[in-house]
Amino acid sequence: MLPSNILKQLRKTTNRWLTQTATIERQTEDRGPFGEQIHDFETVASGVACRVITAGSSFRGDMESSGNQELMLDRYRIIFPAGTAVDVDYRVTIGSRVYNVVGLTDARQDETDVHVIATRER
Description:
Blueprint: H1 4-16, E1 20-31, E2 37-56, E3 63-66, E4 69-81, E5 91-94, E6 97-105, E7 113-121
Antiparallel strand pairs: 1-2, 1-5, 2-4, 3-4, 4-7, 5-6, 6-7
């Protein structure tokens, strides 16, 4: 484990590069008047500093189907400040782009930031 003063400096340096802001939402489920499931999103946090980095593209074969259509997916890494509450199946909106969180990078020992893997449909 790093000494607290070094960890603080690493977090400060990382946060300097988080130049975008995001709204983080989680999916909620409810029942409609006829017993049907209703999916919606509720805001977990807004105005969260972040940075988006391209992690891969659908040109390498990352395709997914929805109904009769194939969707081309691009993969991204989104970096947030340490302690940010985000999980798989959350939705992250940055500007007009919406990303779906599909994985967390949580195997790192020093908690200088939070990394997620996300996809965006084109």
